[in-house]
Design goal:
2 domains; about 70% helix; globular; transmembrane
């Protein structure tokens, strides 16, 4: 229950984000069932947004798969960072935990791990409700999409940015957080300006991880 309680504030950002996703999917011809199936099996907002943006007839399947796989490469780094804190997860719980590892859930889990032991009960309290909420709100978004023809008019498009600003604040650890955040931002902006596609996501994440590793003092 503690994990459920801690994830509730992020639900505020998830609702408009999910509705926006569903509204965009409705413009591509998705119905509630198709959208909920996509959200339930993919469960990766950034990848779903990119896939919907590229969705057309005929569907460029290989391009969508390659692009979304590149975006989700950050999950490899996220999983590696969380693995040392998963000592209490058994062989069945660990794969399920990684499947449910969205950015928000990972951030909350790492915050918990930094303050004590990360337990399966806490993690799945975070993840299960967040997962079901995402599936529900994206499905509902396809229904209201016909009503909200221009989601940006109501500021729904800012939900994605707002959620990640909240995550950054929650993970702030003082001066030692400056180098990873600065490196990630600078590299991501440069890659976005100079490289095609979504390389800025992968390179920005890798730069942040590298900067964190280099700026962490070795134990004496």
């Amino acid at each position: 229950m503690l994990g459920l309680w801690h994830i509730l504030p992020l639900e505020v950002g998830l609702v408009p984000f999910g509705l926006l996703m569903g509204a965009l999917a409705a413009q591509k011809g998705f119905g509630p069932v198709e959208m909920m199936l996509m959200s339930g099996t993919v469960f990766a907002g950034a990848s779903q947004f990119v896939a919907l943006d590229m969705w057309r007839d005929p569907i460029p399947m290989l391009t969508i798969v390659a692009t979304t796989a590149m975006i989700n490469l950050r999950h490899v780094m996220m999983g590696a960072a969380m693995q040392p804190a998963m000592g209490r997860f058994n062989r069945f719980q660990a794969p399920l935990a990684l499947f449910l590892m969205a950015d928000e859930i990972w951030a909350m889990a790492m915050r918990r791990a930094g303050r004590g032991r990360l337990t399966p009960a806490y993690y799945f309290g975070l993840a299960t409700f967040f997962y079901l909420s995402w599936v529900f709100w994206t499905g509902l978004g396809t229904v209201v999409g016909a009503i909200i023809r221009d989601p940006a008019r109501y500021g729904f498009d800012f939900a994605f940015t707002a959620v990640f600003l909240i995550l950054i604040v929650g993970l702030w650890r003082g001066r030692r957080s400056i180098a990873p955040l600065a490196a990630s931002a600078i590299v991501a902006l440069a890659a976005h300006a100079w490289l095609p596609g979504v390389w800025y996501i992968v390179l920005g994440g890798a730069a942040g991880v590298l900067a964190a590793a280099l700026s962490t003092p070795e134990p004496s």
